Amino acid sequence: MNARTTLPALVLLSVLVGAVALAGGLAAGTATAQTANDTANATADITFEDQVGVEEVTVDEVTLSEGGFLAVYNASNGLVGHTEYLEAGTHENLTVEVSPALSRSQVVVAKAHLNEGDQTFNASVDDSYTDENGQDVADTAYVADEEFTRTTATDTATTTATDAAESTTVADTESSTETSGPGFSAVAALVALVGAALLARR
Fold first, then answer.
1. CATH (domain of 144)
2. Residue 166, domain member (yes or no)
3. Does a structural domain hold residue 154?
4. Residue 86 belongs to what domain range?
5. What integer pLDDT is reported at residue 147 of this predicted model?
6. Which of the listed ranges 26-40, 77-91, 136-150 does the model predict with the highest average pLDDT?
7. The pTM is what?
8. What is the mean pLDDT of residues 98-116?
9. Contact at 8 Å (CB) between 140 and 107?
10. In a domain, 7, yes or no
11. How far is CA 169 from CA 17, 58, 90, 165, 177, in A?
C-alpha cells in the first residue's frame, strides 16, 4: 500500500473512531440526564407511629416512587438502623433493628433514602428523598423504654390509690368527730341543764 492510499485510510479510520466515541459520550450523557431527572421527580411518604421498644422499631408504612431505603435516626441524629433495599412501591409494617439499642425514651426519626449505588445502603452516598420544599421526607415517633413506662405507670397508680384512701379516712374521721360520739352528747346535755336552771330562776 503506497502513501497515497494509506493517508486517506488513516483519515477515514480516525473519523470512524471519533464518531463512535462521540456517540458513546452522547449516550452516557443522556443516561446521566435521565437518572438526574428521575431523582428530581422522586417522591416518598412515611407513616411512623409512637410505640414501645428499644431494640427495634416498626414503621407502619413507607412509599418510595424510585425504591431505596428507610433509615432510622435517634434523638441525637445518629444513624441506628436501616432496611435492606426496598423496591419502588408501598411497604407496610417494616421492622428495623436498632443498634445500639435506645438507652432511654426519645423521639426517633424515620427517613427515606434513594438508592444511588448498588442497592447497599450508604448514608454518605444515598441521598434523602425530598419534598417540594426541598426538605427531607421523614416522620417522627416517640419510642418509649418499655420497662421505664411500666414502672412509672405502676408507681403512679399506687400513689394515686394511696392518696385517695388517706383522704377518705381523714374526711370520715373529721366528720365523725364533729357530729357524733360521747363527747358531743355530754356537751349537749350540759348546755340543756344550764338552760333549764336559768329558766327556773326566772
1. 2.60.40.3580
2. no
3. no
4. 44-149
5. 57
6. 77-91
7. 0.57
8. 96
9. yes
10. no
11. 102, 47, 59, 6, 12
The CA distance from 158 to 153, in Å, is 9
Q: How many domains does the chain have?
A: 1
pLDDT band at 22 (very low <50, low <70, confident <90, very high): very low
CA-nearest of 56, 44, 105 to 80 is 56
Which three cell numbers mark 172? Answer: 370520715
Q: Is residue 141 part of a domain?
A: yes
**Cβ within 8 Å of residue 48, ≥6 positions away:** 57, 59, 60, 108, 110, 139, 140, 141
> How far, in Å, CA of 35 to CA of 116, rounded?
10
- The radius of gyration computed from the CA coordinates of the chain, to the nearest angstrom, equals 40
Contact 82, 95 (CB under 8 A): no
By the 10 Å C-beta count (0-12 exposed, 13-18 middle, 19+ buried), 3 is classed as exposed
